[in-house]
């Protein structure tokens, strides 16, 4: 009896479902998809860096540099973490068509003034410091490909 009732219930539910062939599929334009992929890539890669700057700044910085950190450096590291996560939130919430160009310019500027400048002037630990240098410029390259 219970099996009959369940079968009738499932059959009635299926009767009200629209046929899948009649439901239009929303397909993003290739450019829109590329811009969204770029934004998602930035949110993931920069978000991981931002979380590390915010939550574990001493450990994170000691991974790349042989320097003693004081309260001033930790303050700025956490502050930078908040800024990075704020940018990630904006990239996720705002339309990718609006955020693409500022995000691309910012990513290139961050790559030059951040990891690349540190690589050339601050004597970082090698080869681990190549990871942020490569990551930032790969993300910027993906943005240029989407452009």
Give the rounded overall mean pLDDT. Answer: 86
First CA to last CA: what distance?
62 Å
The total domain count is 1
Number of E strands: 0
Q: What is the string of helix and strand elements?
A: HHHHHH
Q: What does it look like?
A:
With 147 residues, the protein is mostly helical. It has one domain (30-146). 78% of the residues lie in helices and 0% in strands. It has six helices and no strands. It has helices at residues 2-16, 30-55, 57-64, 71-93, 96-121, 130-146. Helix 2 (30-55) packs antiparallel against helix 4 (71-93), helix 2 crosses helix 5 and helix 2 runs antiparallel to helix 6. The mean pLDDT is 86.
What would the keywords be for this entry?
about 150 residues; mainly alpha; extended; transmembrane helix; transmembrane; membrane; signal
């Amino acid at each position: 009896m219970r099996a009959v009732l369940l079968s009738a219930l499932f059959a009635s539910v299926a009767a009200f479902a629209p046929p899948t062939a009649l439901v239009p599929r929303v397909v993003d334009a290739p450019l829109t998809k590329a811009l969204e992929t770029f934004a998602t890539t930035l949110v993931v890669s920069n978000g991981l860096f931002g979380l590390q700057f915010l939550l574990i700044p001493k450990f994170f910085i000691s991974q790349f540099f042989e320097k003693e950190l004081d309260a001033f450096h930790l303050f700025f590291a956490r502050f930078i973490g908040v800024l990075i996560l704020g940018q990630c939130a904006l990239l996720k919430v705002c339309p990718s068509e609006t955020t693409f160009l500022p995000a691309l310019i910012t990513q290139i500027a961050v790559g030059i003034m951040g990891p690349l400048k540190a690589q050339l002037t601050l004597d970082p630990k090698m080869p681990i410091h190549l990871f942020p240098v490569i990551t930032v410029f790969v993300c910027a390259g993906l943005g240029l490909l989407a452009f």
